[in-house]
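Q: Can someone sanity-check these two? First one:
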Amino acid sequence: MPGLFPIIEDINSLYRDFRRMPPVEVSEELRGWSYGQGVVAPPGGPLLGVSDITGGFCDRGRDVYLRYVKRVQPRDNYLLQRGRLIHETWTRTIVEVKRSIYNHGLDASSQELANTASTLKEKLRAEFNAKHSLVPEEERTWLVDRIINEGFSTYASSLERQLSRSRFLEIDGLVAATVPLLTEYPINGEKIGLSRALRIDALIPPGLILELKTRHPRREFELALVGYALAFESEYEIPIDRGLLMYVEVDSPKRRLYVRPRIIALGDALRSEFVERRDKLLELILYDEDPGVSSNCPSECPYIHYCRGGE
């Protein structure tokens, strides 16, 4: 299974594993391209984000009701900021590795990547001082350093392997083979009632969706993969039968990150559940129905200050 920063060998191994797995059963009516009829067709109303439907904050959907009907402003907290910090550092690391290779062309080397890594660390430390101020400075620093070090080290080795394979490389192919991810990949989900500006954490060609999660594993995150798969199918009419969840667990006292990748089969049960949740939340919004306060509010919910006075 791949680590935090997948390389081409990891991806090839994953696709080989997929071929050995039982096929994923997906009904035609639950494919994203069936948006013109049947259960996938949106019932109308506002276009929701995948995170609205699968955020995992409120089992009653009151967070979505408060956001779209009552227009209550969410309140940030430590866990949400730390999650965004990890996401942003991971994404920026991948982007800057690619940028460095493009800038240096076929003369790119591990040393150039190391220099870029040092510059990126300084930039993100300064930027995150204000942006993620709820995360203690010491934790911000080691998280940024840890993620950037791992990313640049992983892709420096990958770069050297790719450069050693042929004298006749072109820069675009070199970058794609060294870093086989397209981060923040945009999808228009309007055809299935989702936002026009969806973004997948990473698309791994030819058709694997990767989502990075920093909270405890939960079914909602599997449903998030389904939402992006349906949107992708609606736009490109390419089947997406499996997705990859990359869970990242933070151990601050030991300054370690534990990465637990999971392959998720995106079959009928998950697809039906996602569509049912979409429709239920749209009904709350369209009919102005307050579902009431949940009995199981997670502390990281950005609306807990409204529902429970910050408890």
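And here is the second, same format, sequence then tokens:
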Amino acid sequence: MSTLIDEQSAKAVETWLFPKIHGTSSALLDVPDAAETEMMLMCNPVHDHGPARWHRDMYPPYCAPLRGYIDDILENGPRYVQWNITLYYDDTLWVVPGSHKRINTPEEDAQILEDPHSPVPGGVQTRLKAGDGVVYMLPILHWGSNYSAKKRRCIHGG
């Protein structure tokens, strides 16, 4: 990867080494020096795509069943944390606090089946000002509520 970093991109990569980001990641993972594995930028689409669906950031063929994944987190702690740091006001992300420690409730499942593009019981909308960030674990139930053409720039990685 070092051959892909030049003078123009170095500042973007260094962002992940800021003490508030790197230090927080290390503390949450309970390691002295957390490694960065992903560096992305989420931008608004050219055309309005409407809201995303409620989901957990897991790709089943490469993950344990959700219950096993959650049990491992509860026993051993998180192994990965994911960040959204916004460059403009952003209220797109909704999360269900505590859902990283449990499977979906019957009420959540019913709402997601009825309309996967609207809030679920207990869902909380994040309202981030420019420069604010939110950090979470992959199995948290979350939703991108507004993928419109409204300007969005969110540094995303883990």
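A (reply): Looked at the second one. The first strand starts at residue 39 and ends at 43. The mean pLDDT is 88.
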